[in-house]
Design brief:
alpha+beta; Beta-Lactamase; 3-stranded antiparallel beta sheet; about 20% strand; globular
Length: about 280
């Protein structure tokens, strides 16, 4: 395994009421990257986060602090390009073109293609849901999933984003990342998604140290009540964590023994993918 990250002092957690995506979009108007493209991508990012129910023009306008007329022009253009569509009740969501673009990316993703057989074997061996995710800022993004063989499994979808600090996937990556990345996560802030979520920098640092010593991370219903996970990092030839693999299990099928046995299996699978990416540790 790569060398352990230097112990860092706990970092104070800032409190923010705005979502990261909305903040980034509003800041684009005041930075050198300000452009129509940046604003459009920001809107698409927000539509993705509201994919289950959609978002109204008024809600979107308020969230990004842009006049309704300007927001409507952006949405109209995105609709014309099939990047957004209007649902019942005048709510907006991502359009079918996004699926086409995502499908093209995934079809040519070396990491996903090189991992797929290993993911399938892991799912077959455990019978549980298996995910592959990559880091994106302070979050992880699912790029592959193999469903559980059981009727009672986990609802998730490729493209979904989850915070690093409360997921096995994220903690597996963060445990072997540098201090700059750790600082960016704990400044997030660390909001409780469940009563079990880790919400202090000091507690997260302790958890990451345990993750490094085990070789895999644990999510004890920290992101979603009723769902437990184990996850292990995938490294490239420079020993940089570029992804993680996880096994997700309903609480009623998980116990302490399960964490250990599944943790060892997911660590082995992640090591196999890492070797394919040139990792020799």
């Amino acid at each position: 395994m790569p060398a352990k990250r230097e112990k860092t002092r706990p970092i104070a957690v800032k409190v923010s009421q705005q979502s990261n995506r909305a903040d980034q979009l509003k800041r684009s108007a005041h930075t050198s990257i300000s452009s129509t493209v940046a604003k459009s991508i920001g809107i698409l990012d927000i539509l993705a986060s509201k994919s289950d129910v959609g978002i109204s023009l008024a809600e979107l306008s308020s969230l990004i602090e842009m006049p309704k007329s300007s927001t409507h022009r952006y949405l109209a253009t995105l609709q014309e390009l099939d990047l957004a569509e209007r649902k019942e009740g005048d709510r907006f969501c991502l359009g079918t073109k996004v699926i086409e673009l995502a499908g093209s990316f995934l079809a040519h993703s070396d990491l996903r293609n090189e991992s797929q057989m290993i993911l399938n074997e892991l799912a077959e061996k455990t019978g549980e849901t298996v995910h592959l995710a990559v880091p994106s800022g302070t979050e992880v993004v699912y790029i592959a999933k193999v469903e559980s063989r059981y009727a009672l499994g986990m609802f998730s979808h490729i493209g979904a984003r989850l915070p690093m600090y409360c997921t096995a996937l994220g903690k597996a990556i963060l445990a072997f990342s540098n201090d700059v990345h750790f600082k960016s996560v704990v400044e997030g802030p660390l909001l409780p998604r469940t009563p079990n979520s880790i919400i202090s920098a000091e507690a997260l640092e302790t958890e990451l140290a345990l993750t490094r010593s085990r070789g895999y991370a644990i999510d004890n219903e920290e992101n979603e009540i009723g769902i437990c996970c184990v996850g292990a990092p995938v490294f490239d030839y420079t020993a940089t964590p570029i992804a993680a693999i996880s096994i997700s299990v309903p609480r009623q099928r998980m116990d302490e023994e399960g964490y250990t046995s599944l943790g060892l299996l997911v660590h082995e699978a992640a090591q196999m993918v890492s070797r394919r990416k040139g990792f020799s540790g």
